[in-house]
Amino acid sequence: MTVPGRRSSNFTRLLRHGFTDPSAAERLLDLPDMSSARTDPVLLDALGATADPDLALRGLVRLVEAQDPAERQSLLDTLITAKPLRDRLLGVLGASEALGDHLARHPRDWQALVTYEATDLHPGVADFERGLADATDPVTLRVAYRRCLLAIAARDVCGTTDVAETAAELADLATATLRAALAIARGAAPADAVQCRLAVVAMGKCGGHELNYVSDVDVIFVGEPVEGADESKAVQAATRLASHLMRICSETTVEGTIWPVDANLRPEGRNGPLVRTLSSHLAYYQRWAKTWEFQALLKARPVAGDLALGEDYIEAVAPLVWQAAERENFVADVQKMRRRVVDNIPVAEVERELKLGPGGLRDVEFAVQLLQLVHGRSDATLHSGTTLEALRALAHGGYVGRADAAQLDLAYRFLRAMEHHIQLYRLRRTHLVPEDAADLRRLGRSLGLRTDPVGELNKEWKRHASVVRRLHEKLFYRPLLDAVAQLTPGETRLSPKAARQRLEALGYADPGAALRHLEALSSGVTRKAAIQRTLLPVLLGWFADSADPDAGLLGFRKVSDALGKTPWYLRLLRDEGAAAENLARVLSAGRLAPDLLLRAPEAVALLGDPEGLVPRGRDALEQEVLAAVGRADTAEAAVAAVRGVRRRELFRTAAADLIGSYGTEDNPAEADPGELVDRVGNAVTDLNAATVSGALRAAVRAQWGDTLPTRFAVIGMGRFGGREQSYGSDADVLFVHEPREGVDEQEASRAANAVVVEMRRLLQLPTTDPPLLIDADLRPEGKSGPVVRTLASYEAYYRRWSLVWESQALLRAEPMAGDADLGRRFIDLIDPLRYPAEGLGDDAIREIRRLKARMESERLPRGADPTLHTKLGRGGLSDVEWTVQLFQMRHGWAEPGLRTTRTREALAATHAAGLISTEDAQILDEAWVLATRVRNGVMLVRGRAGDTFPSDGRELGAVGRYLGYGPGRVGDMLDDYRRITRRARAVVEELFYGA
Question: What is the pTM of this model?
Answer without folding.
Answer: 0.71
